[in-house]
């Protein structure tokens, strides 16, 4: 009996233990299988849908088709009419938009400070002046100790040099000009020298653009005010006004010289090239000020060069420039566009070129400076006996940055401070009617307005091409290539399980193959959702391999908006998914991340039929966050859509999605 009792006690325990071990083994096997499936899915999702650099090539072709060509010039009258139109449109449609018009009309203050000894025969006066109200520019005025009669004046601008106005090569240039009898204004540039700082970063000027006021305006007005200041001097000769600078200073030189006809001699040094040149020469792609929104809807840099006719213009480029704008590719298109105009206006000898071979790198060293002095001699001092273009050795007169420091107010307005002020009352919108036909009309009109702000392209012709197809444990995946208006190719990946019906359009800031995205996709598939992952312009398979944000702002320069293109692509994909893949069922959209949060929101607002609902995760609650956090266009280019915040913030765009459900915003 005892043994039977033992058996009756222990055998069930053995069975229970065996069953427990079997269940555990099955669970482990299932878990291992699930892990294996996850690995397989991540590997499949990592497979590209598009050919390498396909979006980049499509973008280059798209941009090239939208840069305005320099049309043949047939008569002096026609050219003068064209030149007047370009200057007017550049100011009205690019430079002085929004509050910038008021900035330009304001009385800019000038405050003269101490005068210090320069060197033999000249003095240096420290001053500051306002580019726009509250934004002070430190500057130095080099003047001969004795001035007789009217003398030439010059604006000395500089590029991306941390030393700013104290850069040695710039000081030597200013000293040489003043020793030749000129008056020279050496001004500081934004984010250089004394104005160095995160809030002055050139990629932050787009914060003003977001508010509907041109971030380019302070750059233009700083130069214009400098010329105003020079010509207000009693001894300034208004017929002899020159501007010159290196790199970003070369850009400043051509920009102000083309748009301000008071500049009678211009020498941009290694500072710019045609937009068409830049599209294929990545090193030439310029910063935000060089590539302002909508500039190329009015003119290319070829036009700006031609606008110099018939005034003396020396185009200086370097033979082996390691930075940008190498002579071999940059100079030709500019000369080719400008030369016929100079010839037509009787100034063929006024357009000159200089290629620097010593040292031939990115420089404004002695050989380049002497080319500038020769130009000044030929046109400003042609009646001056004994004028020499040989540089006057002045190294001992170069001063430290501390000695040239100019006091500016502690609350000097930066790009960000101006943007914070601009954004405070925005957006300027009327609240919609509560209900009825008035509200429906408001929704329709607001969608039209949003589409206009986004420069929404029409992508209504969609063809599809099947890509790879894979399957795994409980899922299958198909890749598609959508061709939109024979211009853009969009990758779509569909992942689903047998019996899945409800379509979900998933967008993420990160790649679809990241662990977090794979996990999210698996959960949706387990819920019997048909998941469609789409990469719009700039993301995933559509990312650009190099200088991506510089291409994005160039897209804006030709009149498109990255956000508008992205929203249009998502809208086109949603229509295709709904009609072709899902029998007319609207898709439910999910976005992950602040960038896709905005892109998906814009697409949902403008696509009321194909997109049925929007769920956003980690999205921004306001566009003002870009300014409050001092974000630059180099970080999130699509957010800085010109004038978007002026008319819409996140809440207003979300209102256009109704009556469809929206969450997470």
Major sheet: arrangement of strands? 1-2-3-5-4-6-7-8-9
Low-pLDDT ranges: 1-37
**CATH fold field value of the largest domain:** Rossmann fold
CATH architect. name of the largest domain: 3-Layer(aba) Sandwich
Tally of discrete structural domains: 2
Name of the CATH first level of the largest domain = Alpha Beta
Shape: elongated
Whole-Å distance between the termini? 74 Å
Total beta strand runs: 17
In CATH, the homologous superfamily of the largest domain goes by the name Alpha/Beta hydrolase fold, catalytic domain
* Class derived from helix and strand content: alpha/beta
Work out the strand percent. Answer: 15-25%
The Rg value, from CA coordinates, equals 31 Å
The largest sheet is: 9 strands, mixed
Percent of residues in helices comes to: 25-40%
Mean of residue pLDDT values = 93
Number of helices: 21
